[in-house]
Amino acid sequence: MPTTTRAATDRIRQFLQVRETTERLAARLTPEDQQLQSMPNCSPTKWHRAHTTWFFETFVLQPRGLAPFDPSYSYLFNSYYEAVGPRHARPRRGMLSRPTAEEIGAYRRAVDARVVEVLEGLDELALRKLRPVLDLGLNHEQQHQELILTDILHAFSENPTKPAYAQAAGFAKPTSSPLRWFDAPGGLVEIGAPEGNGFLFDNESPRHKVWLEPFALASRLVTVGEVKAFIREGGYRNPALWLSEGIDWVRANAIEAPGYARMEGEAYVAFGLTGEREADDHEPVTHVSFYEAEAIARFLGARLPSEAEWEVAASALPIEGNFLEDEAFRAMPAPAVGGRPRQLFGDAWEWTRSSYEPYPGYAPAPGALGEYNGKFMANQYVLRGGSAFTPRTHIRATYRNFWHPDTRFQLTGLRLAKSL
Q1: Fewer C-beta within 10 Å: the chain N or C terminus?
Q2: Angle (CA) 168 171 27, round 5°
């Protein structure tokens, strides 16, 4: 019997760690919780668990001739892969009371065992050939780990009892971190992921040149205190601060505060995964749409950065911050300002002023996996940096997240920029 290579052993360990993280997140929820789908943009927790399993079964196991665990699962748990076949309508995922959460657990265990068995039998060459698909599957599952948290937060926000997903951790009272500006000279710069630099999504490349005018970037994320001033001074009612689509969205939806938040007198009351509480003025504001981020930036006398400006600033910094592994489950105040911007990674996704579009020379991969990013490059804006719901190992300076401009059920915030 062939001996499992060290490289295969390492890949098995990584695979099981990612899979176990998903199950740990789901273990905090009851089977009833895992059934909830509170809006079409969200999915039930058990669907996320099943879909990520379907991905490995479809793109790792079935090409090797392994029969599916249950043929009906391809229809139930395909997300948007047209090349794979038809699928259950996204808005109706919450209607799938069967298979049960327990049965999804059995599905996950069976597929995990089969993937491990495949990896154990691969030599170095075969493992290298499989690695792109395996890496994509692992990073795909990490994206769904974040979605498990954002989606259950939205579902719990619809419950009048405002249940908590996790206990609030004990943190020291936040201290003030004054906003400072860090100047950048601009010029001809390169952005995008270089080839051969580890895993990357196809939308992060090709690396290419961009011309930047001199700019300044804020030292930290915009805070609750700054948004309270925006609210007090009628920011949600002042059309001069808003894009036309933005003010229409505010009026149509009676928006008066960021998502999951409301003003009670001078108190900013926010709901999050640790329940409802009065947020401190020094915390980053979260759950803002692109429209709100634009208006808040204008109110504060600044603008949103472009994704190129953000990446140039972030590329020189270590990837450190408040991530999923820290289990704060919310954005935290910025550390004391030093000689560089803070919070570029973790805490809250940062809206940029850049439309989500292909880099020069980009072409989607052939086949079903080419549907992963390219077909969504319209009517969306780029966010950078990750959040407190993002796994630390998932993020990098070149990572491009993207959402429609009215999105705010994600852990989204903003950082200010200025032209010099």
Answers
A1: N
A2: 30
